Amino acid sequence: MTKKILDDGIVGRGNRDGARLFREWFSSLGDVAEQERNAAYVFVMGSMAEVLRTFDIPTVFPEINSLQTAVRRVAHEYLNEAEDYGYSPDICGYVKADVAVQLRNGQHPMGRIPKPSIAVLTNACNTYIKWAEIWERMFDIPIFTLDVPGTRTAGGQTWQGDPHFENDRRYVAAQIKELISQCETLTGQKFDIDKLREVLGHTNTMNQGWQRVLDLNQSHPSLFNALTDGTVYLGVTNGFKGTAVGAQYFTDLVEEMEYKAEHGIGTLTDEKYRLIFVGVPCYPIFRRFNEMFTEWGGTFVNSTYLWFASGGTNRGFEYDLNRPLESLAEGVLISVRDAMDSMFYQDRILVDMIEEFGVDGIVYHPIKSCRTVSTGLADNRRSVMSNYDIATLFIESDMMDRRVVSEAQLKNRIDAFFEGLASRKHKAAMAG
Amino acid sequence: MNDQVFTRWQGKPLDEVIYECRELLEDIDYPTVRRWRDAGGKVVGHFQVYFPEEIVHAAGMLPFKVRGAPLEATQATSRFGSYLCSILKTSLELVLSERIKLDMFVTHPICDAARNLAAIWGRNFSYPCQILYLPQNANSSHSAQYLHDEYNRLKQDIEALADRPITDDDLRHSLQVFNENRSLLRQLYHIKRETPWLLPADEAYALMAVGGFIPREEHNALLHYTLPLIEKRDMKQQDKIRIVFEGGFCEQPPLDLIRMMSRSTYVVDDDFMIGMRWILDDIPTGGNPLRNLAEAYLENSSYSPVQHDLRKPKEKMLMERIKNANAGAAVITAAKMCEPGLEEQVTYVRTLDKTGIPYFVSEFEENMTSFDHLEIQLETFVENLLFN
Q1: How far apart are CA A292 and CA A294, in angstroms?
Q2: At what angle do helices A75-85 and A93-103 cross, to 10 degrees?
Q3: Angle, nearest 10°, between helix axes A13-35 and A244-263?
Q4: Rounded CA separation B58/A321 (Å)
Q5: Which of A149, A368, A380 has its CB closest to that of B83?
Q6: What is the DSSP code (8-state) at residue A285?
Q7: CA-nearest residue of chain B to A150?
Q8: Does position A268 have pLDDT exceeding 90, yes or no?
Q9: Which DSSP letter does residue A312 get?
Q10: Under an 8 A CB cutoff, do B130 and A171 touch?
Q11: Which of A153, A179, A365, A387 is the best substitution to test chain B (most B C-beta atoms within 10 A)?
């Protein structure tokens, strides 16, 4: 059976194709830079790729560029350069790495990053706004802030038909029209609603595929590691949003995961403990960080990172192609709002997931660089633990800055956490 | 609510009035808020920077500016991670320690950290806790309508808390009260700019900041009483550098730090508690008051690192502030771990470099108690300007 699977190439296809697409994407950005074509700088929470693709404007994700410097272990060079320029050690490492990329005229370990012709951002993270203001000054380009009102109070989401939701939707819809107008000015092209329909159709396939993939990881053993494999899938979710290639990728990924579920094929880890990851990965020691868990048989079955860093597309929102613009406003509002909820109000959903995913423990990983994600995690943990008897681990480091990552200290805490998990399992077995 | 909560200053000489304001400002038990509650009043706490206090006032409740405090965050620390500014922790500490009791809490998405507060607060207290989404796209043609709708949503929540409707006339009356307050604060700042020797920065700060936790009518009475006394002060002009202080829009520097700056400079303009002076002119009281309030926020307002408006690049606004205040130098600060403030510092400094305006860069924390080192640095900076 194993040989047949490997021969068919289904198992592991998502990771292989994802890595290939990622390299191709960066290579294509190098071409854009060489040819000095238009490029839009965007962010993972509300990239507005749906609109930008309609105008054939390539999207550049500075967050992804920055994290790649950490994964490739050169982030410190970029951070130092930005700090020499004047940026404080206490601000977001992604911003600083990007500033250094710009100071180096787009030089990046994965190729050359084009300069922006426009920056499109949402308010899902306030640092997005401050970051874009840097580009505005550096490049004198138009900055478009799509303001997406989030959830006002815990459990207080409103939906279609509610007057408060409709107020928010009208605001988002008006801004989308203004963005379209700005894209027309930038490109000299007229907006083509049929092309938007086509892009939304591909996005629908991707969104629903992404939601299905995440749900399928309820399987025992888990089908993919949310921390490592999940990050590969995330790259495609963002970089190929609204494309036929992206849609095909997620169609194939669903097929792979369903196949694995059907045949009981899990990750490479001999799964003993099923974990949820809350926060942002430790990219400066990405592989080693994961190994500290897998060595104990721990796998991450889900992660809030996969929700917010996909811009809330994990909800699987399906655009209504018969009324594309109205539906786009609804979808952006609901998805980006959900991404924000995944950072601020995730305690309730985490408790629900404990049963659904058969979770043994929750790992909280707040980081110095990102206050959006990290500020409320200690309180969130208190809340979850008061509502459910679940083991949790709280470890702090960073997504970019290795000066704040203490591997030995992390390992000590992680080892102690697994010893506690083992003891819990033992006690549960003894009890019955 | 007719009972006055801050009366100790009444009928006293100016120096004693300022002393009472300082005492109140540094009292972390907030006795004025306690008196308000003891008299049966409700309190809506709102985090920095700007909040449409008129809506709370129109419901007969006390808007209380949640701005941290110089105290040890013993209980709040366990609710937060590391690497955060102090104001977040001490603000929560004030309520966890029951120094302040609220009936509602509102925060804003001013920064990545502060936008978490509604969720954190909501997990710890049973009263309503929410985010007021002030628009971050001030340049959209729909922003004013959106903000009107958002204020209307907030109004409904406040009506539910007050158990009474808020009429347009209620709002108009509140706009008048706050217009008067803003006008008095403009006069206070006019004195700072034109005759700074009459009003050291720490004294001006104390007179302004107490407005955040007493009824605005009482603040108006206080300012009406003190402004003429300040103008009659017999104080001589000194040969001090005129500076603009930037970086006090959210977490506040300790009063002693401001006093220290006053010893060697004239602080002729600043962004301390900028939310209280966010609206630059009187808000019209005719027509739709919520719409007027929304329009004023967007179209007739100051600036800060936490509001994005393409029409108001922060460095341009700072240069205007320096020019309008006829200042010769700037003190560019940020609260420790304040990301927006620290990010803006880079732009400010580069712009000041280009224009040749001297500046002094620093960080502060509300809990600082030692200023000796900072004072030596500032004095050296000032001496360089005076003697070179």
Answers
A1: 6
A2: 80
A3: 160
A4: 45
A5: A368
A6: G
A7: B133
A8: no
A9: T
A10: no
A11: A153
All residues at 6 or more sequence positions from B26 whose CB lies less than 8 Å from its CB, including other chains: B70, B255
- In this predicted structure, what is the pLDDT of residue A4? 57
Scored b (16 or more CB within 10 A) or e, A326-362 reads ebbbbbbbbbbbbbbbbbbbbbeebbebbeebebbbb
Q: Does A154 touch chain B (CB under 8 A)?
A: yes
Across the range A160-177, mean pLDDT stands at 97
Say if residue A431's pLDDT is above 90. Answer: no
Interface of B with A in 269-288 (CB under 8 A): none
| First-last CA distance in chain A | 36
Q: What are A296's two structure tokens?
A: 């104990």
B312 in contact with A, Cβ within 8 Å: no
Top pLDDT among A201 and B388 is at A201
Alpha-carbon distance of B373 to B355, in angstroms, equals 28
Closest CA to A364 of B212, B80, B31: B80
Q: What is the mean predicted confidence (pLDDT) over A237-253?
A: 98
Instruction: Kindly report, residue by residue over A19-39, the tens digit of the pLDDT.
Output: 999 999 999 999 999 999 999
**What confidence tens digit (pLDDT) does each residue in A177-196 have?**
999 999 999 999 999 999 99
Interchain contact, A126 vs B112, CB within 8 Å: yes
Of A149, A151, A375, the CB nearest to B112: A375
Decide if A178 and B140 are in contact by the 8 Å CB cutoff.
yes
What's B70's DSSP letter?
S
User: Tokens 């974990």 correspond to what residue?
Assistant: A275
Least CB-CB distance to B128: which of A149, A153, A396?
A153
Which A positions 307-326 lie with beta carbon below 8 A of chain B?
none
- Is the pLDDT at A1 greater than 70? The verdict is no
CA–CA dist B316, B322 (Å, integer): 10
Mean pLDDT of chain B: 96
Q: Is A406 in the B-facing interface, judged by CB distances under 8 Å?
A: no
Q: How far is A150 from chain B (nearest CA, A)?
A: 8
How wide is the angle at C-alpha A147 spanned by C-alphas B131 and A399, nearest 5°?
Answer: 80
For A278, A424, B96, B106, B128, the CA distances from B103, given in Å and listed in that order, are 31, 41, 14, 10, 7
Report CB contact under 8 Å: B140, A174. Answer: yes
Q: What is the pLDDT of residues B289-316, one digit of tens each?
A: 999 999 999 999 999 999 999 999 999 9
First to last CA, chain B: 58
Q: Crossing angle of helices B372-387/B255-264, nearest 10°?
A: 20
For B245, the 3-state DSSP assignment is strand
Q: Which residues, other chains included, contact B31 with Cβ-Cβ below 8 Å and sequence gap of 6+?
A: B5, B24
Nearest Cα to Cα of residue A332 among A191, A182, A150: A150
Asked if residue B49 has a cis previous peptide bond (ω within 30° of 0), the answer is yes
Q: Is B156 on the interface with A (CB under 8 A)?
A: no
Q: In the prediction, which pLDDT does B1 show?
A: 55
Q: Which residue of B has its CA nearest to A177?
A: B140
Count of Cβ atoms closer than 10 Å to residue B167 Cβ: 11
pLDDT, tens digit, 9 for 90 and up, residues B6-53? 999 999 999 999 999 999 999 999 999 999 999 999 999 999 999 999
List b or e across A212-241, with b for residues whose CB sees 16 or more CB atoms inside 10 angstroms: ebbebbbbebbbbbbbbbbbbbbbbbbbbb
Contact B80 A379 (CB under 8 A): yes
pLDDT in tens, A40-86: 999 999 999 999 999 999 999 999 999 999 999 999 999 999 999 99
> For residue A147, what pLDDT is reported?
98
CB A171 within 8 A of CB A147: yes
The A residues from 121 to 140 touching B (CB cutoff 8 Å) are: 123, 125-127, 129-130, 133-134, 136-137
